[in-house]
Design goal:
Elements lengths: L7 H10 L9 H10 L17 H12 L6 H4 L10 H4 L18 H14 L1
Length: 122
């Protein structure tokens, strides 16, 4: 499986956006973007209770930041497009996508695949 700039999270986010019930939470992107250049905030942990949108938020963030695909059209009509920094961070970063719930119990392939993905960008 390819972990670097894959299309999987974009597909999942597009599906969410086109659901009958969709709540635009893209202003979270603006909050995360504000932390990007701060040395003291180089790690960001977004926690939620079970079934409260962790995967949804992760897919949204990955779709916005990935440089693997042009996702401007996906975000143009959402709240994030109204912010001052909308274009500054859009599609500017390599995104590594890993769903740990799909790994085997020992995650034997995880380290190997992660190193393989990182070699592509280093």
């Amino acid at each position: 499986m390819n972990y670097l700039n894959t299309y999987e999270f974009i597909d999942q986010y597009i599906e969410s956006v086109h659901d009958d019930i969709y709540v635009d939470k893209t202003l979270l992107i603006d909050k995360v973007s504000a932390c990007i250049s701060k040395r003291s905030e180089k790690f960001i942990c977004i926690t939620r209770p079970r079934r409260f949108g962790k995967t949804y938020n992760a897919n949204m963030l990955a779709a916005y930041y990935t440089k693997g695909y042009d996702t401007k059209e996906l975000f143009d009509n959402l709240n994030i497009a109204q912010t001052d920094n909308y274009f500054k961070y859009l599609n500017q970063y390599n995104v590594i996508y890993m769903d740990l719930s799909r790994m085997d119990d020992e995650c034997t392939s995880l380290l190997h695949q992660l190193k393989k993905s990182l070699k592509k960008i280093l």
